[in-house]
Specification:
binds zinc ion, 3 domains, globular, Nuclear Transport Factor 2, Chain: A, seven-stranded mixed β-sheet, alpha+beta, Glucose Permease (Domain IIA), 24 strands, disordered C terminus
C-alpha cells in the first residue's frame, strides 16, 4: 500500500513541537521491544484502574458504557487520582488556556505512548488519554505514520487530542475535554471514489510497468495475487510489449489518494498469457473474477507455492540426478529461492505430514479434495503441524536445503490418486465454478459495459486516463 503523503494538520498552535528523527535502522529491534514493554505497561495501568479505583468512583461518576457515539471517561480517575495534578471541575475551567500543541506522526515503533512520552507529556495525562481513547480505538492498532495533534493547557492537562490513522484516515478520532472529562469520538469522513482506466505496457516486469504509470505496488499485488494468481505466472509469462488494461476504482480523501478500492476489470493481452478478469458478484453475493465467458479465474491450485528466483528443475519422468549421478525421474518442480523465503500452500487442505522425511529433508505434505496431495520439501523451517487445516496461500514453512539438496530451493510435488503429475499443467483442467445460466445474461451486460470503457484503439504507448467521474460505493 502506498503511504499517503503526510500533510500537516491544521493547527491553532502557539508552539509547534517537532520530533527527533526516527530511530536508526539498527535500533529498530530495540524500539520494537521497547514499544512492546511500554504497551504492556500501559495496558496494565488500564487494567489496574479498571479493577481498582475506577470502581470506587463509579458512584460519583457514570461508568463508561460503550455507546456508539463516544464515551465519557472521567478526567480524575485511576490510581493517580490522589496526585496533585488531579484537577477538579473548577480548576479545569480556570486552567483551560491552550499552552502548547504537539503535532507529530508515530515513529517506527508505531506507539502512541512512546511518542507522547518523547514529548514529555505527563504519565498521568497519557494514562487518561489512553483510557478515553481505548473505548473507540485499540492502541495495538496504532501504526508508524499515524498522525496526532495534542493540545495541553498551562497545567499540562489534555484539552484536545486528534488522531488520524495513516492507513484509514477517513476514521479520525477526536478526544476532547468536556467539563472535567475526556470524551472520545471516532468519526467517518466520506471518501471520494473515482473510476479510472489505465493502460500499462510491459517492458521488463509488471511491477515496473505499473510504477511507470504512477501507480503503486499495491495495484501490482491486486493484479498478480487477487485476479490472475491461478492463470498467469508474472515471473515467467510476461513479454516486452504485452499490454494490461485496468478499470480501477481509487478512493481519495481531500484530494489525497488513499487506496485502491477495487479493480473492476483487468485485461492482459500478451504473447504467452492472454486473460481477462471481470469482477462480478455471483447469486450468493460472493465477489470473484471471471473471464469473458463467465468462467471463474480462480483455480483449485495456485500456479506457484512462493515467489521464486527461477525454476531450477522442471517436472520430468527421466532426468540425470546431479548427486546420485544416474537417471532418476524428477517428480516435481524445483524453485530456486533464498534461504528463508516463505512457502505457501497452493490449495486448501489438511496437513498430513510435517517433519523429516529422508531425502526430502524437512517436508510438509497437504492433502486436498478430489484425491490431490502436495509436497513441499527441503524446508529450513516448518510452520504447521500434522492434522492442521490450511487455506490456499497460508505460509507453511521456509525455503531451506535440508535432506538431499545441493542448495536452498523448494522441491514441490503434486500427486493425484498416488500418481505424480506436472504441477504446471494442472490448472488447465481444474477450474473454479463458472457462473450459472441464470447469472450469465446480467454478467454479459456488466462485462460489456466495462469493456466499452476501454480505449477502443491501441493508442500510443502512454497512459490513458479516462476520468469518468465519481462512482457510488
Ligand atoms: Zn526437486
Amino acid at each position: 500500500m502506498k503511504n499517503p503523503t503526510r500533510e500537516p494538520l491544521a493547527t491553532t498552535s502557539k508552539s509547534r513541537v517537532s520530533m527527533p528523527g526516527a530511530p536508526a535502522k539498527s535500533s529498530l529491534v530495540f524500539w520494537g521491544f521497547l514499544a512492546c514493554l511500554v504497551g504492556l505497561t500501559w495496558l496494565r495501568i488500564d487494567l489496574h484502574k479498571a479493577g481498582g479505583s475506577l470502581v470506587k468512583s463509579a458512584n460519583a461518576m457514570p461508568s463508561a458504557p460503550a455507546e456508539e457515539e463516544g464515551v465519557v471517561i472521567p478526567l480524575n480517575t485511576g490510581p493517580a487520582a490522589a496526585v496533585p495534578l488531579a484537577v477538579t471541575a473548577d480548576t479545569v475551567t480556570a486552567a483551560a488556556v491552550v499552552e502548547r500543541v504537539i503535532e507529530d506522526t508515530l515513529g517506527r515503533a508505531g506507539s502512541i505512548y512512546l511518542s507522547l512520552k518523547q514529548h514529555k507529556v505527563p504519565e498521568l495525562q497519557i494514562a487518561r488519554l489512553g483510557n478515553a481513547l481505548q473505548v473507540v480505538f485499540d492502541a495495538k492498532k496504532s501504526r508508524p505514520d499515524d498522525a496526532f495533534s495534542l493540545t495541553l493547557d498551562s497545567a499540562n492537562v489534555v484539552v484536545r487530542f486528534e488522531y488520524t490513522p495513516a492507513q484509514r484516515p477517513e476514521y479520525p478520532i477526536l478526544v476532547e475535554r468536556e467539563g472535567d472529562r475526556l470524551v472520545a469520538r471516532q468519526s467517518k469522513r466520506p471518501l471520494i471514489d473515482i473510476n479510472q482506466v489505465l493502460r500499462v505496457v510491459i517492458k521488463d516486469n509488471l511491477s515496473n510497468a505499473i510504477r511507470d504509470v504512477g501507480e503503486s505496488d499495491a495495484l501490482t499485488d491486486i493484479v498478480a495475487d487477487d485476479i490472475f494468481a491461478a492463470v498467469i505466472d508474472f515471473h515467467t509469462d510476461p513479454r516486452e510489449g504485452d499490454e494490461l488494461e485496468l478499470i480501477v476504482v481509487k478512493s481519495y480523501l481531500d484530494d489525497r489518494f488513499i487506496r485502491y478500492k477495487e479493480v473492476r476489470l483487468a485485461r492482459y493481452r500478451g504473447q504467452v498469457a492472454n486473460h481477462t478478469g471481470v469482477l462480478y458478484s455471483d447469486l450468493e453475493g460472493r465477489d470473484g473474477y471471471y473471464d469473458e465467458g463467465g468462467q471463474s479465474l480462480a483455480r483449485m491450485f495456485l500456479l506457484k507455492p512462493m515467489d521464486y528466483r527461477r525454476i531450477s528443475s522442471r517436472f520430468s519422468r527421466r532426468r540425470f540426478h546431479p548427486i546420485l549421478k544416474r537417471n532418476v525421474p524428477h517428480l516435481g518442480t524445483d524453485y530456486a529461492a533464498n534461504q528463508g523465503t516463505r512457502v505457501h500452500t497452493t490449495a486448501r487442505g489438511r496437513v498430513t505430514h510435517a517433519g523429516w522425511n529422508g531425502g526430502y529433508g524437512k517436508m510438509v505434505e497437504v492433502s486436498h479434495p478430489n484425491g490431490y496431495r502436495t509436497r513441499y520439501a527441503h524446508l529450513s523451517q516448518i510452520h504447521v503441524r500434522k492434522g492442521q487445516s490450511v487455506e490456499q496461500k497460508d505460509v507453511i514453512g521456509r525455503v531451506g536445503a535440508t535432506g538431499r539438496a545441493t542448495g536452498p530451493h523448494l522441491h514441490y510435488e503434486l500427486i493425484r490418486n498416488g500418481r505424480h503429475i506436472d504441477p504446471t499443467i494442472v490448472n488447465k483442467s481444474g477450474r473454479g465454478d463458472p457462473l450459472g445460466p441464470q447469472s450469465l445474461p446480467a454478467f454479459a451486460v456488466h462485462r460489456d459495459r466495462l469493456l466499452a470503457q476501454l480505449p477502443a484503439a491501441k493508442a500510443e504507448e502512454t497512459i490513458q486516463l479516462a476520468d469518468v467521474g465519481a462512482v457510488g460505493p
